[in-house]
Amino acid sequence: MAMLEVKDLAVNYGVINAVKGVSFHINEGEIVSLIGANGAGKTTILKTISGLLKPVSGTITYEDNPIQKYKAPKIVAAGISQVPEGRHIFAGMSVRENLQMGAFLQNNRAEITNSFETVYARFPVLKERINQDAATLSGGEQQMLAMGRALMSKPKLLLLDEPSMGLAPIFINEIFEIVKAIKEQDTTVLLIEQNAKKALSIADRGYVLASGKVKMTGTGQELLANQDVQKAYLGG
Amino acid sequence: MTTLFQQLINGLSLGSIYALLALGYTMVYGIIKLINFAHGDIYMLGAFWGYYTINYWHFNFIFALLSAMVVCAASGVIIEYFAYRPLRHAPRITALITAIGVSYFLENGMSYLYGADTRDFPQVIKQVNYNLWGVRVSNIQILILVTACLLMILLQLIIKKTKMGRAMRAVSVDPDAAELVGININQTISFTFALGSSMAGAAGVLIGLYYNSIDPLMGMTPGIKAFVAAVVGGIGSVPGASLGGFLIGLLETAVQSIGLSAYKDAAVYLVLIIILLVLPSGIFGKNVKEKV
Ligand SMILES: Nc1ncnc2c1ncn2[C@@H]1O[C@H](COP(=O)(O)OP(=O)(O)OP(=O)(O)O)[C@@H](O)[C@H]1O
Ligand SMILES: [Mg+2]
């Protein structure tokens, strides 16, 4: 049984059909990547899984429970945590406060302390800047903060929306290394990327989306080797 | 010199009441970007609650103040629930006009139920004047200043140190991100209305004590001035609202003391215009942009 099963998902913005019957699944322990051009519907799918948007039809099953009607806080409580596109860190709050917000639903102090230690170990830069206003971090640091914040809730499934967006190549490599390391520590990952080559090279499986539909699926290696995928998303 | 100190004392007493009121405007604006025009009327409700409980239930000052805060907090939550929540995703102007409607509803509702005439607020604390080096200070003024400052400190602690306070700040900065960490947006907004309205309720009881007279329309002008105070301080900024309130109070007494009583309201709006020209986002207004 898959950890997360998305079936015939359709999501609209008013009259715009952004996602038109998408199905895919994620097994526990995998990195699954969704790739596709701008406007393909990737972010929309992620927001629907995390409860910010409601589907018009279709089901999302997580650990055998239908969750498509849950509100966002209940989904976080169930163990799914999202790192949104564009980071969305809390400007005006310190790095420490941002991380603390990530553990909002956790009331056990010992657990929170433990999450802090795990996150600081994963992102040493954040530890050096605990009292700095998050808005003044560099883009790469903000991305790490957004990921750290999501990890503070100890998710079983982490949803990443374009973590490499706008970063210098050296940071991009670092982010992908971190994603791999997060998987090694038993967190399942759904990774959305424009950087299809990098994403597919660390993914167990991938899905190619185009205009709100799944066009192709396979293991990361299969998709990387596929002629059509190469032409459309890997720059020939 | 004595006149200066005298006006300072008068200005601070009045200013602390504006500050209490301005806090509600700024917090509500911060979280749902709504200028809650009905906020001044919550202050009126607080004053009436104080009037009735002191006169008929013989509440003492502390009880009257605390119960007015609770009742106003509940009113704020109810108003938000029925009037503003259904419009959460409507264009801003819709909510703004609704707020004006709520304001009229409260003003006219109270006039209808209790009459539009001015009433004498009961002197629950006997006024005593002290003379300090020629400056006249009343125990009521001291009480107002101390109560207002205590409430503002308490509010600041709630916002900075408690979980709900952090949730409020998170929702003001980024509602989507707040939801993604598990914050219940509706609950947080209700809490904000409760806090802001309780401050207005306290201000209502304090002004009753200070001016000794209340009426159903008493919230209009102070409401607008407190709104100006919030804008001057930088709308959305809590310390800004407190500072703005004191500034407006001081300005008003200063204008009055140089014999221009008739122009004290005009002076307040003049300051608003000047501040907006020089510092469009107010004294503590922030212009932080997130890096992308
Ligand atoms: N709030 C919105 N209102 C209306 N249409 C929207 C909204 N958000 C997204 N869309 C539309 O839905 C479609 C899918 O958008 P989505 O953001 O999911 O794409 P994406 O695959 O994440 O793209 P990108 O790679 O650029 O982030 C697009 O056509 C977009 O214009
Ligand atoms: Mg996107």
From TrEMBL, chain A:
Residues 4-236 form the ABC transporter domain. InterPro entries: AAA+_ATPase, ABC_branched_ATPase_LivF/BraG, ABC_transporter-like_ATP-bd, ABC_transporter-like_CS, BCAA_Transport_ATP-bd_LivF, P-loop_NTPase. GO terms for molecular function: ATP binding. Pfam families: ABC_tran (PF00005). Keywords: Amino-acid transport, ATP-binding, Nucleotide-binding, Transport. The keyword Transmembrane helix does not apply. Belongs to the ABC transporter superfamily. This is ABC transporter ATP-binding protein. It comes from Secundilactobacillus hailunensis.
From TrEMBL, chain B:
The chain crosses the membrane at residues 12-36, 56-83, 95-114, 140-159, 191-211, 226-254, 266-285. This is Branched-chain amino acid ABC transporter permease. The keyword Cell inner membrane applies. Its main location: membrane. It holds the Pfam family BPD_transp_2. Belongs to the binding-protein-dependent transport system permease family. LivHM subfamily. The keyword Electron transport does not apply. It is a multi-pass membrane protein. InterPro entries: ABC_BtuC-like (IPR037294), ABC_transp_permease (IPR001851), BCAA_transport_permease (IPR052157). It is found in: Cell membrane. It comes from Secundilactobacillus hailunensis. Keywords: Amino-acid transport, Cell inner membrane, Cell membrane, Membrane, Transmembrane, Transmembrane helix, Transport.
